[in-house]
Design brief:
The protein has strands at residues 7-14, 27-35, 55-57, 63-68, 73-78, 86-92, 96-103, 106-112, 122-128, 134-139, 144-149, 155-160, 180-187, 190-199, 214-219, 224-229, 234-239, 244-250. It is mainly beta. Strands 3-4-5-6 form a four-stranded antiparallel beta sheet, with no helix packed on it. Strand 11 (144-149) and strand 12 form a beta hairpin.
Length: 264
């Protein structure tokens, strides 16, 4: 992921009560904004590059956490008073954080440590919401992207993208090594590194099936993992408990006209 955002926005969902509201569309009302430059570590240059990309919330709703790729850190924003967010500090993760998720009192973040596109590497880092420190890491065997925790907090899934080099052959895939999905068992928010399941999703997509590039994962109440493979235009359903593919299908296609397809 390479989209950078300069601020983290905080929104409250406003829904009117009563029978008349049943058919009314819900609306979001932004109640505060927090420029993440205000969360830079003490002594940092004020023009240091920083961003808020992927955001998650603590289960009690008083703390936001976000991945800050250019800073190489996970940031915290105190929203005990949602209308007056406060800087909560940052934690360095010795790499590029790509996503964050919360399981109880732990923050789980994918960290990209790849030396090159052909030698991807990374780990899952565990940060304590209270300690504000990295408490454990698990190797994921490639370049992680999205991270998701199951509703029962017993599993964490990581999309291992092993992304393509967009400057090589105009970014056309296949470009090996292929990506996959990694699953760990969780206990009180801590992953069991020895429980790692690697799910092979190659050979499924019609587009560059030999080079799956997992982009995003989510998990439902049945511990089924849904995986999107953006460059392959494909979706995969995985049994999170067994670590096996249950179903897969193309994301489909539409005919469009009058759109800008030039990179500028």
């Amino acid at each position: 992921m390479n989209k950078l955002f300069a601020t983290a926005s905080i929104a409250a969902l406003i829904a009117a009560g009563g029978v008349a509201a049943a058919s009314a569309a819900p609306v979001f009302n932004r109640i505060a904004s927090f420029p993440v430059v205000q969360n830079l570590p003490q002594g940092s240059e004020p023009d240091s590059e920083t961003s808020a990309e992927i955001i998650a919330a603590s289960e009690d709703g008083t703390m936001l956490v976000y991945s800050d790729s250019p800073l190489g850190a996970v940031g915290f924003i105190d929203i005990t008073d949602p209308k007056a967010p406060k800087a909560g500090g940052t934690v360095s993760v010795d790499g590029e954080p790509t996503a964050v998720a919360v399981a109880g009192g732990k923050v789980l973040t994918g960290v990209n440590t790849s030396e090159s596109y052909t030698e991807p590497s990374g780990h899952l880092a565990v940060i304590g919401l209270e300690s504000k420190a990295v408490e454990a890491t698990c190797d994921v065997g490639g370049q992680p992207d999205s991270v998701a925790v199951s509703p029962d907090r017993l599993l964490v899934a990581i999309a291992i993208e092993n992304e393509r080099d967009e400057d090589l052959n105009d970014g056309v895939i296949p470009q090996m090594p292929a990506g996959n999905v990694v699953i760990f068992s969780l206990s009180d928010g801590m992953p069991d590194c020895d429980s790692r399941k690697l799910v092979d999703v190659s050979g499924l997509a019609d587009i560059a099936g030999s080079d799956p590039e997992p982009e995003f994962v989510d998990i439902n109440g049945e511990n089924e993992i849904v995986l999107s493979m953006q460059e392959n235009n494909h979706l995969v359903v995985i049994d999170g408990n067994a670590g096996t593919v249950k179903a897969h299908f193309t994301a489909g296609a539409v005919d469009l006209a009058g759109i800008d397809v030039d990179e500028e």
